[in-house]
Here is the input.
Amino acid sequence: MIHARGLTRRFTVKRKVVEAVRGLDLDVEQGQLVAFLGPNGAGKSTSLRMLTTLLPPTSGTATVAGRDIAADPDGVRARIGYVGQSSGAGEQFRAGDELVAQGYAYGLTRREARRRAAEVMDMLDLTPLAARRPSTMSGGQRRRLDIALGLIHRPPLLFLDEPTTGLDPHTRADVWQHILRLREQYGMTLFLTTHYLEEADSMAERVVVIDHGRVIADGTAARLKGDLAGDRVTLTAHDPADTARAAATAGRVFGADRVAVENGAVRVRVPRADAALPELLRVLEGEGVRVATAETARPTLDDVFLALTGRTLREAEAEGAGAAEGTEGADAARPTTAQPAAASAAAPEGDRA
Ligand SMILES: Nc1ncnc2c1ncn2[C@@H]1O[C@H](COP(=O)(O)OP(=O)(O)OP(=O)(O)O)[C@@H](O)[C@H]1O
Ligand SMILES: [Mg+2]
Here is the structure.
């Protein structure tokens, strides 16, 4: 569904070159649900916008849904849906009309557009809201409408840029339920970005982590956590004077680079905490170190990010917060729903591309 090689995008803002995406290589199989994860300014949206033909790459190539993004952008757009980072629905049109208009924009006849609008509203539980305007909807309802707009032309591949950002936990769960259903019931391929590590961890079968424009990890969440972060054993010595000796002992058993002392506790990264803990306790006992407390923890994706970059995702977010605001010429007016070439003529309203 997606094959990208060396996709790169640079922006020049006030004579300063920003390398937003550097050499993205990516292969996504049909039916996969891939979460694209990374801090603010990492290059997620820029990658998505290149793959959806909204932004030409500086260099590199990609085929998306079987079409080349440079040679056949219309072919790509006809076969994909794109739900942008901000809402794509106009405020003053009723949801049902908006969906039908989007159908026209994709070249459906009036009847087909109506039928398809009814279908996607059903898929996303929007039927009771057909006569409502987006301005009167809740955040989750609007996001579901955005997704419906991206699906009107039955694309086999859907890109979603932060579908759940800014929603409360209950609404996030609801939007996720609808996203998962698209995959299970309709076999769609889904490629989405998120800041929420727990979401990526529990929902996506594959996680791609991007930082400073480069992919730094790619795999199942379980594998990334196992390979890169590992489980943790944290223990404290009964006598604080024994802490250093406990750390040295743990280092001899598991490797010094896996051991750290933090706030008076010895922290050890191990492949399997349940197996490592009894062994560690035995060895420490042999050394005459009395252990006061011991606990084990499974890694999170944040531990993976920390292991890869030396900083937590939250720290990375904070440092990127100021940097992610540049705009450059025509890119500022970004369409939030992928449109076929003729869409601007056919769409009833200038808000969308
Ligand atoms: N149109 C543009 N003009 C100039 N710089 C840009 C433009 N779009 C993106 N950038 C820069 O490229 C980098 C990557 O931005 P991008 O929007 O891809 O990040 P992101 O991972 O989607 O971040 P966020 O999580 O905040 O949405 C940032 O440094 C950003 O400032
Ligand atoms: Mg973004």
About this structure: The chain is about 40% helix and 25% strand. The pocket of magnesium ion (ligand 2) is lined by residues 44-45, 85, 161 (CB under 6 Å). Residues 324-353 have pLDDT under 50 and may be disordered. Residues 88 and 146 are 6 Å apart (CA to CA).
